[in-house]
Amino acid sequence: MKRPRIWHGGLLTIVAVLALSACSKEVADTEKDAPAEQHTEMDHSSMNHSSSGEVPATLKNAENPMYPVGSTAIIKDGHMEGMKGAKATIVGAYDTTAYIISYEPTTGGQRVENHKWVIHEELFNPGSAPLAPGTEVKTDASHMEGMENATVRIDEAQQTTVYMIDYVSTTNNDVVKNHKWVTEEELTKKQKDVGAV
């Protein structure tokens, strides 16, 4: 009577192992065949969070910015992890046209869509501002790897005050110096306004 029980238990173990193997393969195949659009979020890991602080010679200081140089503000709309909710110190304030752009990195890799921001003064021979959406022009901005000398497509133009800021990342406490750029609309004076965005 014992033999059938042992044999029966062994058979159940084999069946269970085979079932688990098939399940694992199915999960792996599902992940492998997942639609590409799930992985198309823009990666800002190659973005130069800090900069030398140099600005184009033709860039004009804002005459009466909402956030004067030396003042502080809260970043309510950040372009990358660690920005939103961080306290920013204003390093520079400039009146210009800011652009949302898309481009193929000169270093290769995935096309970058809807990058914020490049300013008019960072474009090669752009002519008069603002440029119309769809316009293609080269930039000498180096905010991200592969951006400098890239041909960019203008997606949106915004006449605004842009700010160069210092801030401490809310995710890893890295100190970021002379970050380019945030617009006036992306800053607030009140911490409570951040959660409402």
From TrEMBL:
User: Which portions of the sequence form the region Disordered?
Assistant: 29-63
| Any coiled-coil regions, as ranges | none
Do you know which Pfam families this protein is assigned to?
DUF1541
What is the protein name for this chain? DUF1541 domain-containing protein
For this UniProt entry, which residues form the secretion signal? Answer: 1-28
Composition-biased stretches, type Basic and acidic residues, lie in: 29-46
Using the record's annotation, list all stretches that form the DUF1541 domain.
69-120, 133-184
Tell me the organism's taxonomic lineage: Bacteria, Bacillati, Bacillota, Bacilli, Bacillales
